[in-house]
Amino acid sequence: MRYKKSAMIVAPQPEPTEAGADILREGGNAVDAGIACALVQGVVDPQMCGIAGMGSMHLHLPSQGVHTTLDFHGRSPKAVRPDMWEDRIVREAEDGWGFILTGRENELGYQAATTPRTLAAFDAALKRHGTMTLRELLDPAIEYAEHGFQVRPHMVHFWTRPPIAGRDGNLPIVTKFPATRAIYCRPDGHHLEVGDILRNPDMAATLRRIADRGAEDFYHGDIARRIDSDMRANGGLISLDDLADCAPETNPPLWGTYRGYRIATNTNPPKD
Description:
- Helix content is 40%, strand content 14%.
- It is α+β, with helices and mostly antiparallel strands.
- The longest helix has 15 residues, at 30-44.
């Protein structure tokens, strides 16, 4: 099957766009290519996205008669209480989005994590509308995680930029734990610089296991049990019950108008 030369893959880094374009060349459809792109993006830009993250997907597939959205924004774990951080509030963040806490628990560490629904959404989209399997599409992401990719100027700028809206800077986030320091720092403790090669062998191993055993392992199998155990050992809030409930929500597009055009976008209605 020949791919359409009018197709476009867009991402902040070149590696994900190349992975998506390769899938189109191999005969995959837009869903296959988009998810291959997103999986690689989660390796090369993990502070902004990844299989344990959240997001939304807007699918317009005329050949299938499909126009729908998948919403997989992170939810608060079941152990969260409305008043649990009430005595730690310092002030509202300067941009009006959230609050600054004394211990930064909502920014750094185990209690800052919401439920990881992205992988479930990728798996669901492929099974409903794709032509390739998650196993096939994970290969490029595994390759980049295992063998590495070159650090570019924007990455270093993102890590080292000044704090925004009263929150901590990004460098403390990527260097807080020994496991992340091993990924983002040189042996002398200094963060990686432009031109260095960033490798993430632990992520490669996790992605390879998912390729072998499916997304089910992440939410119900051995990976889920390891997440639960790690959370319990470090004061985290995500449990096996939270992981078991992870799934995307299918909703019709939200429509509006702009200068005579009808515009469709994702919606994420509150849960009942």
